Amino acid sequence: MRYFIKVFELGNMTKAAATLHIAQPALTQQIHLLEAELGVPLFIRSTRGVKPTEEGTLLYKHAQTIVRQIDNTKAILHRHDNPVSGTVSIALASSTARMLALPLIHQVKQRYPSVILEIVDLPSADLTRQVLQGRVDFALTPDQQEIKGMVLKPFLVEELLLLLHADTNIKKRRVNIEDIKNVPLILQFAQPFTLSNRSCLPGATPAL
Length: 208
Known about the structure:
By secondary structure, the protein is α/β, with parallel strands linked by helices. The protein contains eight helices and five strands, in the order H-H-H-E-E-H-E-H-E-H-E-H-H. The longest helix is centred in the first third of the chain and has 24 residues, at 54-77. It comes from Advenella kashmirensis (strain DSM 17095 / LMG 22695 / WT001). Keywords: Activator, DNA-binding, Transcription, Transcription regulation.
């Protein structure tokens, strides 16, 4: 299954074989065996590489969860050797990953050497869906909306800085959402729902 995942992600048998450190014929044979076992073609081959079939795309949606469950099962069977072990996957937005990924990896490696930490870098809009679909164990998201079937816990407080023209009539050193609710704003990403959820003004619509 790991071989299939790598071929799917790279779209090329040669690159996948090099990444997996195995011979390409051996990798090709393993993919053929998987297709024979499942009874469906998983890839369309061409001189430019491979493209997943509809069945291959469907399998990929479940493959990462399957692999993670296998790793966790192995860890449970050997937990007498390593009290804390297994694979933990966490989804982070790109901006968050740049700040937290390396420190988090170092901390986990030092405190839990038998734990495999997988960090998935995704757009903010995809974080919740990854958790709901079971592809990751948890995610750090700026969205504060309650979602059925999920537990939302505060993790950290982010300080936002407001950049204003010198002629503005807002002179306070610290402002809240109510102070700027009628001020036209320019944001890096147009996500009014995120700003509204962070405020204490239900139903407020920022002027973006």
